[in-house]
Here is the input.
Amino acid sequence: MGLSSIVRSTFGFIKRHRVKLAIAVGGATCLYVYYSLRQKYLSITRALEEERESGANRLQDGFTSSLKHAHELLRKMLPEVREVVFKLADSDSLVRELQTTPVWEHKKGLWERLKVASFVRPIASVYAICILELVLVTKFNLVGRYMSSEKSMIELPSGFLTKQTQHKFVELARVSLFGSCMDILVRVIHQAVVEVVGPMQLDSRLTCADLVLAVVNIRKKVESTSKAALRKILVESCFSPAADDSRGVELENLTTLLQEEADILDNDDAATVLGTILDRAFERFEKLLLANAQDQFPIPKALPKISNLSITVLGPDSPVVSAVEEEPLVAQFGAVVYVSGASGGEN
Here is the structure.
């Protein structure tokens, strides 16, 4: 068969089956195009997924770092909390006065004051830890949010946060909480202790259950009659006067951060988190109370043990601090602040 015959035969085949061949070629072309587009789509999807995972990992790392710094600073501040609480609820000076006062009538009044101060000191320590935890977690995650994104360039008056501004923003927690805020807190707790413990006679005997019930009732009075005061403490912690060493601090940025922090803390979500932290902290505190008490004892012998619980509560290995740090709701609240800057989750 010659070449011309092959060409005629091929041309005839194509002519007879041109529709089928056109469909086959079109189908193959469609399959190729579909395959190419599919590969490009998968490549883009993988890239986007990797970018999302990378972004999520950055957020997770940033949030974890902020939470870690908040907890580290809380533990570093415990000696300062102890100093302020011990000064405001000074049972030590009352003990010294009792040792040098010979007249019973004078001693009786000192014993009554010591009875109140011995309960105020550890209970105020627990409250201070919980409030400081919530404030520090809010501060560090709010700073972390701005440092982890371009939001600072858009939303802050002076753009990027300097280290001095960050330091000042966090430092104000120490200035405020160890100043007027602690005065308010101890005054509120003192009043509740007077109402609950005051009627107890010095010659009466207490059981472990009596002590726990007293602590429960004190907390109920504090939080039922002084919710506004606790909320005021949280919000006032955001508006302490700046110290004189404001070199390098962008005051407009600092003011913006403080106002946003106040909005976050003056919120029902923050109140709920504080309540949950207090539940966890007092649960651990009551276990300490039971572990350090006998089955039954006169009040004068119980007071030193109750008062000295504040040393454990504010110690370097504080079980109360550990309980607060382990509360999942604290981490969730901090994560929302870190991501959105508002506990409601909105930008």
Notes: The beta strands are 205-207, 296-298.
